[in-house]
Amino acid sequence: MRSKIDPGGQSDAGKGKSESQEPERSFIEKARRAQIIDAAVETIAARGFAKASLAQIAERAGISKGVISYHFAGKSELIERLVEQVYEGIGAFVGARLDGQSGGAVWLRVYIESVAEYMLGHQTQLAALGEIFSHFRTADGAPRYGIASSEPIYVALEKVFLEGQQSGEFRAFDVRVMAVSLQAGIDNMFAYWSAHPEHDLTAYARELAGIFEHATRADSRARD
């Protein structure tokens, strides 16, 4: 899973206007859009990205394809809003657990373990995101989500690492390398769990957090 959550709890998924930036919608319109997005998540997770047509999504939602076209310009916009909505949920969950945490090492562990905790209860979303990140392309054929689109989270993680270094809690290291490595570790944690669902995700996250605690802490044991 290519995570796109700002460590401060903000989502950076999707381009263009966010739901909060769009003109105020009626309660019914918002509920209908949420229903369509939920149906898209379920359809993509069950059938794969390529086979998840608007017609299939409409059938799962119990509506006509025209209703989807009324609320979304096409499949691309629907998918972008889907990713945005999923990550807003993750961001709220993780942000609530990070709120009030002090100290880089504690923050780092809570961040890693809370993302895993969220996904334990949202496996269908994880499956849908995996399909989207693997197969969704821009008009020129480039991956819509990938390393380039993860720049905001690298910047946010760099800030956390820099603050830890300035406080003396973290050792000296290249914060960009550590940020990219941490995010890759989280992405691969979910990729492995998706392929091996019998694996204990909570234990994996706990071990991953320990690895980065040892990699970042400012003491002789981390350097040896």
TrEMBL record:
PROSITE patterns: HTH_TETR_1, HTH_TETR_2
Domain HTH tetR-type as annotated: residue spans: 30-90
DNA-binding interval(s): 53-72
Coiled-coil parts of chain: none
Bias-annotated ranges (Basic and acidic residues): 14-25
Keywords for this protein: DNA-binding, Transcription, Transcription regulation
Keyword Signal listed: no
Domain of life of the source: Bacteria
Protein name, as recorded: TetR family transcriptional regulator
